[in-house]
């Protein structure tokens, strides 16, 4: 077990939390079988593990946060797209099933998400950091619990401003 194996063990919970969350969104939307969802989750975990391998800094958890951020903003996140492609799901299908605006932060000791550009940030997983630093109190989870279900139906107010001419 080399440094890569140690890094995988270190980020396993965060990655499986993120992959489970995206899978749960797909399951809630319906139309995908359990076996396909199980494969998607495994593929996404593998894609994330590979992507984060050299960008995981437990001593400085915010370092590399932008690199690890999973983002759908009227454009499919390439990591979700790649995992979906492995099970034969097209980007078009993903756009129908997932919120059009989703941000998922996968950092050491914390996984959180936001649906919509002005939605509240909800924590999916939080663990105390080694070294005894107190963690911030969790957000009010009751406000977050149902938000991912309704997020798909509320388009962002900034939608028209997001178009960029190439």
Automatic annotation (TrEMBL):
Domain of life according to the entry: Eukaryota
Organism expressing this protein natively: Eolophus roseicapilla
Residue segments, region Disordered: 129-166
UniProt cross-references to PANTHER family, sorted A to Z: ANTI-PROLIFERATIVE PROTEIN DOMAIN-CONTAINING PROTEIN, B-CELL TRANSLOCATION GENE
Family to which the UniProt record says this protein belongs: Belongs to the BTG family.
One Pfam short name: BTG
InterPro entries with a match to the protein in the record: Anti_prolifrtn (IPR002087), BTG (IPR033332), BTG-like_sf (IPR036054)
Transmembrane annotation, as ranges: none
Lineage: Eukaryota, Metazoa, Chordata, Craniata, Vertebrata
Polar residues bias locations: 153-166
GO cellular component term of the entry, any: cytoplasm
Domain Anti-proliferative protein per the UniProt entry, residue ranges: 98-117
Biological processes, Gene Ontology terms: negative regulation of cell population proliferation
Composition bias, Basic and acidic residues: 136-150
Official protein name in the record: BTG1 protein
């Amino acid at each position: 077990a080399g440094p890569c194996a140690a890094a995988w063990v270190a980020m396993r919970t965060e990655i499986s939390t993120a992959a489970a969350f995206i899978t749960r969104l797909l399951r809630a939307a319906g139309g995908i079988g359990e076996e396909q969802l199980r494969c998607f989750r495994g593929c996404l975990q593998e894609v994330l593990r590979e992507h984060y391998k050299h960008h995981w800094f437990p001593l400085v958890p915010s370092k590399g946060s932008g690199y690890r951020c999973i983002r759908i903003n009227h454009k499919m996140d390439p990591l979700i797209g790649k995992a979906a492609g492995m099970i034969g799901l097209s980007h078009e299908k993903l756009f129908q099933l997932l919120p059009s605006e989703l941000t998922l932060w996968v950092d050491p000791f914390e996984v959180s998400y936001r649906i919509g550009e002005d939605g509240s940030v909800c924590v999916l997983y939080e663990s105390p950091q080694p070294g005894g630093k107190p963690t911030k109190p969790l957000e009010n989870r009751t406000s977050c619990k149902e938000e991912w279900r309704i997020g798909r139906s509320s388009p962002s107010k900034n939608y028209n401003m997001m178009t960029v001419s190439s």
